[in-house]
Amino acid sequence: MSDFTTNPRAHFDYEILETIEAGLALRGYEVKSIKSGKVSLKGAYVKIINGKPVLLGAIISPYQAGNVPPDYNPQATRELLLSKREVSALVSLSKSQGLTLVPLKLYPKGNLVKLLIGVARGKKKHDKREAIKKKDIARSQQRGTE
Length: 146
Fold this sequence. Notes:
The chain has helices spanning 10-13, 28-35, 84-96, 125-143; strands at 5-6, 14-24, 39-40, 45-49, 52-56, 59-60, 78-81, 100-109, 112-122. By secondary structure, the chain is an alpha+beta fold. The protein has a single domain (5-143), classed as Small protein B (Small Protein B, Chain: A, Beta Barrel), CATH 2.40.280.10. Strands 1-8-9-2-7-5-4 form a seven-stranded antiparallel β-sheet. The longest helix has 19 residues, at 125-143.
């Protein structure tokens, strides 16, 4: 199966060093909405609050607008399901080396919805320019104009 959604800017803005798979604590109508493609990871990030990893800034639009609880927030903070060992490793990486936790994609695994988290280092402006040049060269070679 294909991914539900990906983070379009993650690989451009960050150098991904390591990836970790995490589950999400969701309600039933949120799962239906994700499976129908009404989700966006654009601008989302992962943060560790009180020793628990959470997903912030992800937008999960309602599956049926008229059939959602009145207090539903599409940008609510959602808890990530990781083992204690994985959480402690994420905490040590993000604090000691100054790395960022970035959500890369939401995808199905059986009947579950999983989130791929990237442990990343931010790219500098010149790194981004090099990436753009490489894309342009590859695009022109594919077209046969060079």
